[in-house]
UniProtKB/TrEMBL annotation:
This is Peptidyl-prolyl cis-trans isomerase. Pfam families: FKBP_C. Signal peptide: none annotated. The keyword Isomerase applies. Belongs to the FKBP-type PPIase family. It is an enzyme of class 5 (isomerase).
């Protein structure tokens, strides 16, 4: 996967639980809970479709430990295999908390499409 994904927007109300959807199943090493992952990703708001972050726009992937990330990533990436592309739809409780939580994305349901490039 060498190109930024296009996100297809779901119809209807935002889910109240984490939704994990594999768009491409990888065939490499499997990410484990607490692993350090190297990913490319794009994130948009569920309600508006507005993109709020993208490693693609910066032109480089990013590497970080899962335990430092929002709960939706901690729960949604393990089990994914290198070479895979996965879409996570994450309710506020597993993202940046309820509205008024002090983060610009508090109270929002988020959609991420994540390409797993490496895990260790």
């Amino acid at each position: 996967m060498t190109s930024k994904p296009q996100i297809e927007f779901p119809d209807g109300p935002a889910p109240t639980e984490l939704v994990i959807k594999d768009l491409v199943v990888g065939d490499g090493d499997e990410a484990k809970a607490g692993a350090v992952v190297d990913v490319h990703y794009v994130g948009v708001e569920y309600d508006t479709g507005a993109e709020f972050d993208s490693s693609w726009n910066r032109g480089e992937s990013i590497s970080f430990p899962l335990r430092g990330l929002i709960q939706g990533w901690q729960d949604g990436i393990p089990g994914m295999k290198v070479g895979g592309r996965r879409q996570l739809t994450i309710p506020p409780e597993q993202a940046y908390g309820p509205a008024g939580g002090g983060h610009q994305l508090s109270g929002k349901t988020l959609i991420f499409v994540i390409d797993l490039l490496a895990t260790r």
